[in-house]
């Protein structure tokens, strides 16, 4: 999908939100009509956005674009207006975001995985966990939705962790192998001084845990040496020591452990293990904290447990589940 068509979808979503919330002003009606008539794609995108609002149950009346699309002989049954006008503002911020997200669904579901596959030397799909052997004999256990890129040359053995989690069992230095082994992730570099360590990549930084011997972690001019059963996190220009948590590598035994995480982070972790993406569209729900242990082979059960715990409603769409 091009950037232009993505912009059209988002503009259509914004018009749909405005028309659902209130009557347009005369100037807005003219602006919306001009935008809709400027390109046939605009009218199609607006109708799709309004249909998404109908699916969410937040469009209180038939709109001009929908009536025009149905034709003069169509019968339009308005949805009931909520009895308390004060309810609607609570929906506005996250429901607007939901429509924009839904309008962008093909991009959200396809582009990230396609980009990783193009970049990576080794890649795991949703729900796949496997071990790979590198050219030097080192082994890497890759968590679901993880990807690495290799940069081996005469001077070093460098691995870039592009996504997810990886557990490294490094072929040690010897008279035949003198190149240092380094893992780069989110602007930090972990150099093996022993044999086994793991790196867990997230959106803002990375967690490093040492399972055997030691490593040196370097980030933004800072450096730490970690020994066995020690860990560190780097993010936001800071490198700090932190305890090693079993949750960091429970995936190797087929479990996902969530310990006091915000719902938004918990859902992001669950999404690593299934192709059906879960999105929490209500900001108040995303901020609540949850804990639990879930079998990786049953991510749908984890989602249902989470929904019940939160008392949330659920809507299932192709490729996406909304919690609100």
Automatic annotation (TrEMBL):
<dbReference type="InterPro" id="IPR012373">
    <property type="entry name" value="Ferrdict_sens_TM"/>
</dbReference>
<dbReference type="Pfam" id="PF16220">
    <property type="entry name" value="DUF4880"/>
</dbReference>
<protein>
    <submittedName>
        <fullName>Fec operon regulator FecR</fullName>
    </submittedName>
</protein>
<dbReference type="InterPro" id="IPR032623">
    <property type="entry name" value="FecR_N"/>
</dbReference>
<feature type="domain" description="FecR protein">
    <location>
        <begin position="121"/>
        <end position="215"/>
    </location>
</feature>
<dbReference type="Pfam" id="PF04773">
    <property type="entry name" value="FecR"/>
</dbReference>
<dbReference type="GO" id="GO:0016989">
    <property type="term" value="F:sigma factor antagonist activity"/>
</dbReference>
<feature type="domain" description="FecR N-terminal">
    <location>
        <begin position="10"/>
        <end position="52"/>
    </location>
</feature>
<dbReference type="InterPro" id="IPR006860">
    <property type="entry name" value="FecR"/>
</dbReference>
